[in-house]
Design brief:
With about 110 residues, the chain is an alpha+beta fold. It is about 35% helix and about 30% strand. The protein has 3 helices and 4 strands. About 5% of the residues have low confidence. This is NIPSNAP domain-containing protein.
Length: about 110
């Protein structure tokens, strides 16, 4: 009889953000995105990158980053609201207005 492997329990949470962008402002969004990668990493997360349009839709981008737990993510959100570098990134996008809308989802990994 084959042994059924036990499911592993991972506490990691990955945030998936789907952006709808102004396709004429992709360079501005990329500048904004590049600011966030080290910020998320500095604040305890692991940024997996931004994925910008290449083929297909020209106005959809995705970001993926993980935190050890939802509580750690919530702490990151609290810290980012007070961090001067994060505030500068928010201000840059407020001026650029490259993001038309976004959807945030939280996922858990299924790993081998």
């Amino acid at each position: 009889m084959a042994r059924v492997p036990q499911a592993r329990s991972y506490r990691v949470i990955t945030c998936h953000i789907r952006y709808v962008l102004d396709p004429y402002k992709l360079a501005a969004f990329e500048e904004y995105a590049r600011l966030w990668i080290p910020l998320v990493n500095r604040m305890g997360g692991t940024h997996h990158g931004y994925f910008l349009p290449s083929e297909g839709a020209n106005n959809i981008a995705v970001a993926l980053f993980s935190f050890p737990s939802l509580a750690a993510y919530e702490e990151y959100r609290r810290q980012s609201a007070e961090d001067p570098d994060c505030q500068a990134a928010f201000a840059l996008e407020a001026g650029n207005r490259s993001i038309l809308s976004y959807e945030r989802s939280f996922m858990r990994p299924v790993l081998d």
